[in-house]
Structures are given as structure tokens and as C-alpha cells.
User: Which sequence fits this backbone?
């Protein structure tokens, strides 16, 4: 059955993120031209697609792997994120020590993988692994977080609750009364990593085609995947398209793109940031349902995103580029910056951008294999928490491709069924009403341990 179709005008953001603006310049890779055959087609060159290509190419050096990217490597969320490389799986609550250690350990291994791949290949990647915070703006929530952090620490998970001067040395944000620090996390320049891996993958024989939007998929025992100037036939397809996946006709009731709006300031010296309230931390997420997130780039730019209905928006029809004037959304985010750091209100905003978060109803992602012939692999639905998980997805997909399911079977994302999102126009109307009435994003509650 042919499946389709990405419309570049509606579905690919045009604006430039901080990461895109500060990555080393490079030549675009040639688009696909002509009809070819391969062993594996990967659609999408973000963290999921590139990490999958990396693991497959190393495990199967003789297989021909083709990556098709609509624009450039890192065009999507991976090149537009808040940069926070975090532990845990969004949407999951694990209430036993074994379960908590298992979930934390899996994502910690993903973080360690990022560090090890950078070290092994000597990549020039800005990765500031000094820890990120979960911050709390309400005494009751802070006290609950304190108790939870002590419980996790007793279970061997190295988080610490911070308050008073210990908190202020990390961040002095107005209204923040406590925070939980995870010292294994950090801020990652995602495009440094992705662009650094391109020549490594090419050295392994992987062909990466940029400016090659997939416009049709004929799924079968052998898939045919078409771009405007060529096609690839292969027995294995990997959907590494996260928030764009429904545009290809897959997971249409399982995921929806939620637009997050982000700003970044001009660079300032670290001493100046200390005066303004930023200390020894790579980033933080606050404690609201529609979180605000902030992180500090290697060259001293404060990045702030999200934070409320004003900055998390759903476009009718599930478009993956924000189709409207975003001035109001950026103003909203700037007001969050001023709220947390009033003394930084006058620092010039140098970058503004949007990116699609791939939200699921429970916020838990899915990594697995589907299709009549069990030859369509996917990793998606990270729900705004995918810098580490999407990098981990490559290893999971490679194991599933090798029919080696055991290492992952017990994790919540394994073959997770995604559904529950109503069709348009109910989706759009429901989203507008729910968010306006509650200030929250619709989500389905799940059992405590999933
Ligand atoms: C604004 C924002 C802030 C975020 N902040 C954080 C954060 O601080 N920490 C965190 O953990 N997570 C964060 N996330 C989430 C995280 O960035 C994503 O979960 C992760 O990058 C997803 O990677 P991916 O490779 O699966 O998808 P993507 O990076 O979106 O890659 C998908 C790729 O597929 C390509 N594509 C789409 N359709 C087609 C087609 N038809 N043909 C060919 N190619 C196609 C796209 O161009 C894109 O390059 C954020 C996301 C956003 C949008």
C-alpha cells in the first residue's frame, strides 16, 4: 500500500536553531538520484536514525544502509532541542528499587554511550556533563521531590536534593525553592554529535542522502521508498521520523506533534551569568505540567523553551512546522526568562526557533517492529525527553533487527502500543478546550509501574 506524504512547506521548520547557527559549516550531502537497492532504509537523520545507522553498520559491515533525510542531518528535534541529555523515560513511574534502577540504568547507559562514541572517534562535540536539575517552585512539590530523591539515593540512584546555598550555587532563579540534581546528565550540542558521526558512518559504507524527502512508501516484503528524484528498494525499513511519522501514514492515532518554542540569548561571560543567577549547572526543567526548560551553551548563551499554553502549541492537521506567526509564543517564552531571571531581562535574544515534540497520550515512547512482514522498525514518541532515548533507540532497533529482544523486553518502551489520539477535528478542538480550561496538555494516566 502506498503511504504518503510530507509537504515541505507545512512540515519542515524554516527557522534556525542555536545549534544550527553555531555548528561548524559543512557541504550538503548529495540527494538520492536514481533507483537503487539496499539492505536497510532509514528515514530521518536525527538521533534515532543516525544512532541506528551507527549500530547496524558496526554489527553488519557488509549490509548496505541508506539514510534518507528530507533536509539536513539534524533538521528535526535533534537539531532544535533544549539540549538537555537526561535520564529516565518520560511518563514512567517506577516504585520499586529494582524497577527504578532498571529504568535509570538503561538511560544512563544511553548517556554513557554518547560520551563513549565521542571519545572513541575523537569527535569535537560540546557536551557539558556537569548535571541538570529538576527545579521546584512550590513548597509542597519540593518536599515531595526531597523525599523521592532520598528514596532514590537509598536505592543507589545518585540524585541529590538541593536547597539554600547548595541550590544557589547551581541556579538562583526567582521562585525556585528546591531542586533535584542528577550529576550524570548534561547539555549536549546535538548537531556537533550528528555532524561528527556523518564521516564515521560514511567510512562504514553508510550512504546518507540529504534533501531527499520520502514522498511515498510502498510497504511489503521488499519496501519501495520514493523521493522526488529516486527510489530505494530494501527488505527493511526504519522509521526514524519521530514527530513527522504520522505524515508518512504511520502511528496516526499514536503520536501528535506539539510545537515547542525556544529562545537563546547573546553569549555572556560566565561571571556575568553568575551575577544574573546562573551557576554550576548544565540546565533545568521546572515542575509544571507544561514545563519550561533552560540550559547554558558552551559559549554562554542562556536557552529557554516551553513553559505554558503560550509556547506549546498544536497546529490543525498535525503539521510539523509551526505554520503561523510565532511572535506571541516567543514573547511568552521571553517572559519566562524574565520571571526566573529578572536581572537578565535586558540581555539580547539572538535566536528564536520552533521544533516538533512527538507526544504520545501517556508520554511513554515506543521502540519496536511492526508491519505485515515484521520488517518496519521504529523509535518515536519521546514526548520532549528524547535526547538520550533517541540515541539509545539505535542500539535497541539494532538488537531487534538481530532478533535479539531479551535485553529490552522488560522496558516500558519495548513494542509499546501507541494509540488513543482522536482524529481531526475532534483532536484540535479537544486540545484547544482542554489546554485553555486546565493549562495542561491532555494525557492519559497509566499504572504506576509500566
Ligand atoms: C524544541 C524542543 C526542545 C527539546 N528539548 C529536549 C531536551 O532538552 N531534552 C530532551 O531529552 N529532549 C528534548 N526534546 C526532544 C528531543 O529533541 C527529541 O526527542 C529527539 O531529538 C528525537 O530525535 P529523532 O531522531 O527521533 O527525531 P528528529 O530529530 O525529529 O529526526 C527526524 C528526522 O526525520 C526527517 N524527516 C521527517 N520526515 C521525513 C521524510 N518524509 N523523508 C525524509 N526525512 C524525513 C526530519 O527532517 C528529521 O531530521 C526537544 C524537542 C524539541 C522540539
Assistant:
Amino acid at each position: 500500500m502506498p503511504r504518503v506524504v510530507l509537504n515541505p512547506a507545512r512540515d519542515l521548520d524554516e527557522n534556525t536553531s542555536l545549534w544550527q547557527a553555531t555548528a561548524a559549516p559543512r557541504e550538503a550531502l548529495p540527494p538520492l538520484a536514481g533507483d537503487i537497492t539496499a539492505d536497510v532504509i532509514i528515514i530521518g537523520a536525527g538521533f534515532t536514525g543516525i544512532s541506528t545507522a551507527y549500530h547496524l553498520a558496526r554489527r553488519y559491515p557488509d549490509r548496505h544502509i541508506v539514510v534518507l533525510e528530507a533536509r539536513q542531518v539534524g533538521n528535526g528535534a535533534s537539531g532544535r532541542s533544549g539540549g538537555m541529555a537526561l535520564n529516565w523515560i518520560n511518563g514512567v513511574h517506577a516504585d520499586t528499587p529494582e524497577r527504578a534502577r532498571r529504568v535509570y540504568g538503561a538511560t544512563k547507559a544511553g548517556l554513557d554511550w554518547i560520551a563513549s562514541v565521542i571519545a572513541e572517534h575523537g569527535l569535537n562535540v560540546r557536551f557539558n556533563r556537569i548535571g541538570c536539575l529538576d527545579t521546584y517552585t512550590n513548597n509542597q512539590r519540593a518536599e515531595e521531590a526531597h523525599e523521592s530523591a532520598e528514596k532514590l539515593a537509598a536505592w543507589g540512584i545518585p540524585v541529590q536534593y538541593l536547597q539554600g546555598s547548595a541550590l544557589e550555587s547551581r541556579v538562583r532563579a526567582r521562585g525556585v525553592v528546591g531542586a533535584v540534581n542528577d550529576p550524570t546528565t548534561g547539555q549536549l550540542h546535538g548537531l556537533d554529535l550528528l555532524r561528527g558521526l556523518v564521516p564515521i558512518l560514511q567510512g562504514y559504507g553508510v550512504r546518507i542522502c540529504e534533501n531527499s524527502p520520502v514522498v511515498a512508501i510502498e510497504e511489503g516484503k521488499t519496501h519501495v521508498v520514493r523521493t522526488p528524484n529516486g527510489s530505494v528498494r530494501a527488505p527493511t525499513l526504519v522509521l526514524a521520523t519521530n514527530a513527522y511519522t504520522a505524515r508518512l501514514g504511520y502511528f496516526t492515532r499514536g503520536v501528535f506533534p506539539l510545537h515547542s518554542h525556544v529562545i537563546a540569548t547573546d553569549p555572556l561571560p560566565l561571571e556575568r551569568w553568575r551575577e544574573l543567577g546562573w551557576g554550576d549547572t548544565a540546565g533545568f526543567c521546572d515542575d509544571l505540567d507544561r514545563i519550561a526548560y533552560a540550559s547554558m551553551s558552551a559559549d554562554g548563551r542562556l536557552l529557554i523553551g516551553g513553559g505554558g499554553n503560550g509556547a506549546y502549541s498544536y497546529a490543525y492537521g498535525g503539521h510539523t512546522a509551526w505554520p503561523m506567526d510565532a511572535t506571541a509564543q516567543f514573547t511568552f517564552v521571553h517572559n519566562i526568562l524574565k520571571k526566573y531571571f529578572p536581572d537578565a531581562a535586558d540581555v539580547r535574544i539572538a535566536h528564536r526557533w520552533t521544533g516538533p515534540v512527538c507526544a504520545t497520550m501517556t508520554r511513554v515512547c515506543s521502540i519496536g517492529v511492526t508491519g505485515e512482514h515484521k520488517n518496519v522498525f521504529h523509535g518515536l514518541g519521546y514526548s520532549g525527553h528524547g535526547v538520550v532515548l533517541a540515541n539509545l533507540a539505535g542500539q535497541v532497533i539494532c538488537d531487534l533487527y538481530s532478533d535479539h529482544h531479551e535485553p529490552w523486553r522488560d522496558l516500558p518502551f519495548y513494542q509499546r502500543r501507541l494509540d488513543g489520539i482522536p482524529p481531526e477535528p475532534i483532536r484540535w478542538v479537544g486540545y484547544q478546550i482542554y489546554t485553555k480550561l486546565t493549562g495542561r496538555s491532555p494525557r492519559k494516566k497509566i499504572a504506576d509501574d509500566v
User: Anything to note?
Assistant: The first helix runs from residue 8 to 11. Residues 2-80+191-254+363-421 form a domain with the FAD/NAD(P)-binding domain fold (CATH 3.50.50.60). The chain is about 30% helix and 20% strand.
